[in-house]
Design brief:
α5 links the parallel β4 and β5. The protein has 10 helices and 5 strands. It has a 5-stranded parallel beta sheet with strand order 3-2-1-4-5, with helices on both faces. The radius of gyration is 18 Å and the shape is globular. Helix content is about 40%, strand content about 10%. It is α/β, with parallel strands linked by helices. The chain has 2 domains: about 5-165, Rossmann fold; about 175-240, no CATH class. α8 packs across α10.
């Protein structure tokens, strides 16, 4: 049966992919939200070049917005922005997009592999597959590979993901929490531009305040970050963790 290997663009899923030694019959799939950090895209390019493993890169599109892809296409086709309660971004940009791509290739029955580590037992225990006829495997968890082991592995390679893990997946995803986003913006203020544009364009279309967070905007978070820049400049990004778990890596 075909193996579908979920590649998130991060170090854990990349290591899992290498360990699985994909054959031409396997599908290594990366669902691109178009909100990844530029270094993530470079890492994916380097991975393909060095490992000689093909990555199937797929992106959400919508008939209502034929010239847009990813997050922009989703937001333009909806009447509200994704939020912690209604995670339509994960559903549409990841799950539905992957299903549409895989269906003509492998149908609805295959093996899927996800890169949850041994130190992510909670994610393994709480995982719910969006497929009915698919068996899911967690190779890193089963081999007791944790984050430290993943990081040590990438020290042996001639290329690496050149950003801290907190910047993985959508760079300023609201699930990372306001405090984490503020810390990121203190170092990378330009990342806020597209998220601010989302909120302001949606507000203009609906003529009311529509934001990712209930009580603030991304412009508010950027202003806070700029006003507190001297407080947290020496923070260790590798110690930062999202406020809420997201299923984007699955």
């Amino acid at each position: 049966m075909t193996r579908v290997i979920n590649f998130s663009g991060g170090k854990s899923s990349a290591l899992m992919t290498i360990l699985l030694k994909p054959t031409p019959d396997d599908i290594v799939i990366f669902c691109d939200t178009k909100r990844e950090h530029p270094a993530t895209y470079k890492f994916i390019d380097d991975f393909e070049q060095h490992e000689k493993i093909k990555i199937h890169r797929v992106t959400y599109t919508n008939k209502k917005t034929p010239k847009l892809t990813g997050f922009e296409a989703l937001n333009r086709s909806k009447v509200y922005l994704p939020n912690r309660t209604h995670r339509i971004c994960t559903a549409h940009l990841k799950v539905i997009t992957a299903k549409r791509y895989l269906r003509p290739l492998v149908g609805t029955s295959f093996y899927q592999y996800i890169g949850f580590r041994y130190d992510e037992k909670n994610r393994v225990d709480n995982f719910k597959s969006s497929y009915k006829k698919v068996k899911t495997f967690f190779p890193l968890f089963n081999q007791k590979i944790n984050k430290e082991m993943v990081n040590q592995y990438w020290l042996t390679k001639p290329y690496k993901l050149e950003i801290p893990s907190i910047l993985g997946n959508c760079d300023l995803c609201f699930l990372k929490g306001k405090n984490v986003i503020i810390r990121i913006l203190q170092h990378f203020p330009d990342l806020a531009d597209k998220w601010i544009k989302d909120e302001e364009e949606m507000a203009a279309r609906r003529r009311l305040k529509t934001t990712y967070f209930k009580d603030c905007t991304y412009r508010d978070l950027l202003n806070i970050a700029n006003s507190q820049k001297t407080l947290f400049d020496s923070g260790n990004f590798e110690q930062m963790a999202p406020a809420y778990s997201c299923s984007c890596t699955s």
